[in-house]
Amino acid sequence: MNAASGAALVAAARALVGTPFRLHGRDAAHGLDCVGLVRAALHAVGHKLPVDDARYPIRGWSRDRAEAMLNRAGLMAVTGPAAAGDILLGAAPNGQLHLMIATDGGCIHAHLGLGRVVEQPGAAPMPVVSRWRIKK
């Protein structure tokens, strides 16, 4: 992903800040969860996801299964310095996985506790186990 497309993905995610949290939410008009947020932001920048992954629940999935889904979605795992627009796969303390979108100074994610999509400054709120970008 080049800097322009990373900035576009961040802008698309920022447009969703404040959207209510809804478990398995895939429509911003009714609420989004972390997968719905990433899916909506990717769609806004013209990246279409496979239809069969639209219902991807992430809850209860293994890291391997989640990463296979991200790969099928046309994303590639990346290493090295983080960049704005990276999609972060985090591991919550309760064993659940969580998707976030990196910004220059933090991340945007669907926050269950606050009940909405938020932009959070600083480090991701949980350990990041892998980072993903749109394949070139």
Strand percent estimate: 25-35%
- The total count of strands amounts to 8
Radius of gyration: 13 Å
Figure out the total of helices: 3
- Alpha-beta classification: alpha+beta
Biggest sheet record: 6 strands, antiparallel
Helical residues, percent:
10-25%
The ordered string of helix (H) and strand (E) elements is HEEHHEEEEEE
Tally of separate domains = 1
On the 0 to 100 scale, the average pLDDT is 89
* Strand order in the sheet with the most strands: 3-8-4-5-6-7
- Which second-level CATH architecture applies? Alpha-Beta Complex
Quick one: CATH superfamily? endopeptidase domain like (from Nostoc punctiforme)
Keywords for this structure?
28% strand; alpha+beta; 136 residues; 3 helices; six-stranded antiparallel sheet; two-stranded antiparallel sheet
Q: Secondary-structure blueprint of this entry?
A:
Elements (H helix, E strand, L loop, with lengths): L2 H12 L11 E2 L3 E2 L1 H11 L18 H10 L2 E4 L8 E5 L5 E6 L3 E6 L4 E6 L6 E7 L2
Antiparallel strand pairs: 1-2, 3-8, 4-5, 4-8, 5-6, 6-7
Helix pairs in contact: 1-2
Overview of this protein structure:
The chain has 136 residues and is an alpha+beta fold. The chain has one domain: endopeptidase fold (from Nostoc punctiforme) (Alpha-Beta Complex), CATH 3.90.1720.10. It contains 3 helices and 8 strands; from the N terminus they run αββααββββββ. It has helices at residues 3-14, 34-44, 63-72, and strands spanning 26-27, 31-32, 75-78, 87-91, 97-102, 106-111, 116-121, 128-134. A hairpin with a 3-residue loop joins strand 1 (26-27) and strand 2 (31-32). It starts with a helix and ends with a strand. The mean pLDDT is 89.
